């Protein structure tokens, strides 16, 4: 009897569908002249080549530092980088430089990971079983939705306001889950709280505090802690306005799981992320990471530790902020010039993208005539539908686009939006 080759796959292996990113990359390969406003890449021209060469020289110049950097390191990460990370985050959060940090920002709570993506994955492994529920912003970071799908975890969407998560809707959904007896399956609320991917919205501290309070009020019915997972991946890519303190600053109960990254604000090829986690999540994640890779590449961590300690990292942030302010300005200018007035876009204050909302009559999904036509005109965007969870309680919106100004140059941004604008004018006539 012929055997089905897939029959050896695990339940997870069988369940995992093709990530949206594969489709986006395939489109880019099939259309070599494509202007990609979809790529989540950072700007090549900003990558700190000369600075990294200097840092690498410093690390490798002496046998002692070179040998230690080229050796395996600790699972939780390089102690110097963990300490620098904790101090820096505390300073950004509070404006204070303290010798002894409060427990929420203690270096012992820092875990260094291979990009923050790895940490997001391990956190779901550590906290969720198949059939569990994670509350996400509606829309949210589509790669995170992929993790949930693969691990058999359901996502429930919480609507957003211009100021972050819609607290009334959060309360309604928590109430519904309580009444249906499903609250014990809920483990966390995931917020991309700074210049959210995809909408660009930043969540105010008041909303983070109120969300924590609501979660706390439902813990008795859930019969376990309900965590707030704050993903601050874009926090340092700010080019306008003031920073907002993280949820760690109002976490009296050890319910905040904070993740962020050095990859976008420094070099995406130096894929180092970090998290600040309370117990027992911290030890659990560290053990699982021990099984994954028993530690993030030591050499890369040492480069970053030196970049932070020497001030090269902060200088680089300044360059990024000027560059992305210019590119986002070019994008908004082209949108105002070429898009019909009924396609709504919010002017970004940080991050890498603009969220464009067309009237509902226009379908922008992967298989829509509009998306095909954009590809025929060599323009690619991220279809908004990819950023929405498969939530059975509402119809998945399909009339939005994420337009990134990260990797495309200014001339391509202008050209791409002129083409997209012409197609929008035609479609919305
Ligand atoms: C919201 C968000 N979180 C996390 C990540 C992961 O980034 P990295 O693994 O490079 O830290 C990304 C990458 O695009 C992202 O958009």
Tell me the fraction of residues in β-strands, as a range.
5-15%
Global mean pLDDT: 96
Identify the overall geometry.
Answer: globular
Bound molecules: pyridoxal-5'-phosphate
The H/E string reads HHEHHHEHEHEEEHEHHEEEHHHEEHEEEH
Task: State the strand order across the main sheet.
Answer: 2-10-9-8-7-3-4
Extract low-pLDDT stretches.
Answer: none
What's the helix count?
15
Radius of gyration: 22 Å
| Assembly type | single chain
Based on secondary structure, the structural category is: alpha/beta
Strands, count: 15
CA distance, first residue to last residue: 59 Å
For the biggest sheet, the summary is: 7 strands, mixed
Residues in helix, % = 40-55%
Structure overview:
The protein is an alpha/beta fold and 429 residues long. The protein has 15 helices and 15 strands. Helix 3 (49-61) crosses helix 12 (298-310) and helix 13 (312-338) runs parallel beside helix 15 (410-428). The site of pyridoxal-5'-phosphate has 14 residues, from helix 6.
Kindly summarize this structure in a few lines:
The mean pLDDT is about 95. Helix content is about 45%, strand content about 15%.
Layout: helices, strands, pairs:
Layout: H1 11-15, H2 20-30, E1 35-36, H3 49-61, H4 63-69, H5 79-94, E2 110-114, H6 115-127, E3 133-137, H7 142-150, E4 154-158, E5 160-161, E6 164-165, H8 167-179, E7 186-192, H9 205-217, H10 219-222, E8 227-231, E9 256-261, E10 272-276, H11 281-292, H12 298-310, H13 312-338, E11 344-345, E12 353-357, H14 369-376, E13 379-380, E14 382-383, E15 400-404, H15 410-428
Parallel strand pairs: 1-13, 3-4, 3-7, 7-8, 8-9
Antiparallel strand pairs: 2-10, 5-6, 9-10, 11-12, 12-15, 14-15
Helix pairs in contact: 3-12, 6-11, 8-9, 13-15
The chain binds pyridoxal-5'-phosphate.
Pyridoxal-5'-phosphate binds next to α6.
């Amino acid at each position: 009897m012929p055997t089905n080759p897939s029959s050896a796959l695990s339940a997870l292996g069988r369940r995992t569908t093709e990530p949206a990113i594969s489709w986006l990359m395939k489109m880019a390969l099939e259309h070599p002249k494509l202007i990609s406003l979809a790529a989540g890449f950072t700007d090549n021209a900003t990558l700190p080549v000369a600075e990294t060469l200097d840092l690498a020289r410093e690390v490798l110049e002496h046998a002692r530092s070179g040998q230690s950097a080229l050796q395996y390191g600790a699972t939780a990460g390089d102690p110097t980088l963990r300490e620098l990370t904790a101090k820096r985050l505390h300073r950004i959060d509070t404006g204070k430089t303290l010798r002894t940090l409060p427990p929420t920002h203690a270096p012992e709570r820092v875990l260094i990971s291979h990009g923050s993506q790895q940490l997001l994955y391990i956190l779901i492994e550590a906290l969720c079983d198949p059939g569990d529920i994670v509350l996400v912003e509606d829309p949210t970071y589509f790669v995170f939705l992929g993790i949930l799908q693969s691990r058999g975890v359901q996502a429930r969407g919480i609507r957003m306001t211009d100021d972050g998560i819609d607290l009334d809707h959060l309360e309604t959904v928590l109430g519904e889950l309580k009444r249906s007896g499903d609250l014990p399956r809920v483990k966390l609320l995931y917020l991309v709280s700074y210049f959210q991917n995809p909408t660009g919205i930043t969540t105010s501290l008041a909303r983070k505090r109120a969300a924590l309070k609501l979660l706390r009020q439902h813990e008795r019915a859930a019969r376990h802690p309900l965590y707030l997972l704050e993903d601050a991946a874009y926090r340092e890519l700010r080019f306008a306005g003031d920073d907002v303190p993280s949820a760690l600053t109002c976490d009296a109960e050890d319910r905040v799981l904070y993740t962020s990254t050095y990859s976008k604000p420094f070099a995406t090829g130096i894929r180092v992320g970090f998290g600040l986690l309370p117990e027992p999540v911290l030890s659990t994640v560290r053990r699982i990471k021990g099984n994954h890779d028993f530690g993030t590449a030591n050499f890369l961590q040492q480069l970053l530790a030196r970049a932070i300690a020497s001030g090269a990292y902060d200088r680089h942030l300044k360059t990024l902020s000027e560059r992305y302010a210019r590119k986002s300005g070019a994008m908004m200018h082209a949108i105002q010039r070429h898009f019909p007035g009924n396609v709504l876009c919010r002017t970004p204050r940080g991050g890498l993208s603009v969220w464009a909302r067309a009237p509902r009559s226009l379908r922008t999904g992967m298989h829509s005539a509009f998306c095909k036509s954009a590809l025929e005109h060599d323009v690619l965007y991220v279809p908004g539908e990819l950023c929405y969870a498969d939530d059975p309680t509402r119809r998945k919106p399909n009339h939005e686009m994420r337009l990134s100004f990260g990797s495309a140059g200014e001339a391509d941004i202008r050209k791409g939006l002129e083409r997209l604008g012409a197609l929008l004018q035609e479609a919305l006539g």
